[in-house]
Description:
This protein has helices at about 10-30, 35-45, 50-60, 70-80, 120-145, 145-150, 265-270, 305-325, and strands at about 95-100, 165-175, 185-195, 195-205, 245-255, 260. It is an alpha+beta fold. It is globular and about 75 Å long. Helix 4 packs parallel to helix 5 (about 120-145) and helix 5 (about 120-145) packs across helix 7 (about 265-270). Strands 1, 2, 3, 4, 5 and 6 form a 6-stranded antiparallel β-sheet that branches.
Amino acid sequence: MGGSTGTLGLFFPVFLPTGIAAAAYAGHRAYHVDWKFWITHFLTAPGRTSRILLVFFLVLNWKSLPLAWTVRIFHSFLYHLVRRRKALPKQALFHYSITTSRNSLLDTDYNMHKSNSTYFADLDVSRSHLTTHLLGPAMFLIGDNAKNKLVLDKEGNVVKGGFGMGLGAVFCSFRKEIAPLQGYEMWSRILSWDRKWLYIITHYVVKGKVRPTKYDSTKTGPTRPRMVDAETSKPVSQEDWSKYVIATAISKYVFKVGRFTVHPAIAIEASGLLPERPGDGWRGGETGTGTPEELGELDEEGEWDWRRVEFERRRGMEYAEHFAALDGTNNLFNGGQDGAIGKFPLG
Length: 347
């Protein structure tokens, strides 16, 4: 199963105990090291200039080093799953998760800007922060599905197996370049969902240019004033924030218990982020996403009821459905029936 959170089924029973044991052993060994001697030797012994430059290079490029991606992903798991979040307001379902990073020298291509291929490693980290923070409660509950009985098959039987998330596809549109060592931010949020896929949109944004009006939990960064129209009392934007967007990516995830596909609404609802919906709920109707009732006029400052959530889901699907349609391009592959240009080395 692809995707940065596809290893969740192994994280707690395998990787977490192994990591704790390795950290404990390393700490034990480090305690008996004469650090004063080694630091003095490092800074004064012959060859010190080369060593210092090497350390400086490694610090600037740490995120591109071997196993650095794994450390970044596991850090997001530990940060949000071990350190449980408090209950979030319903509107947090479509709020942004913000992650800061910097373009390393090893991520820079011959055009002297961030290589297009390296955007996807950053996406893994940004999506992991978003999904584990928002859907962390569901991961614990669905992970013990035999006890909680949240996921049932068509016959009403409890589905058995480990919980995981698989990455189905990624699209990225590049708008501006990122210079060497330039800082940037990744703003990720849920775009929409259907009966199978959860769609996530990520904007790469110039660092420090955009601030949210508030944070849903403990304040973790600077904010900006929330501007409201004096006559209508509706929120207004201070400026066109899209001018700070460097690139935009859309990803889609599928939830699994064993080999059984889990409706995204089950995970969202189990995380306390879906209000009650009348009729057949969030999984009814022909589309499997709820009965297509008329939503009517919505109050932007009103309660986050099921109509406002469904409005945002439908608005996001206007973009997501075009992205999903690209799955059909697999059928264009004909195996070189009319020939091929050639086969080349060092691919």
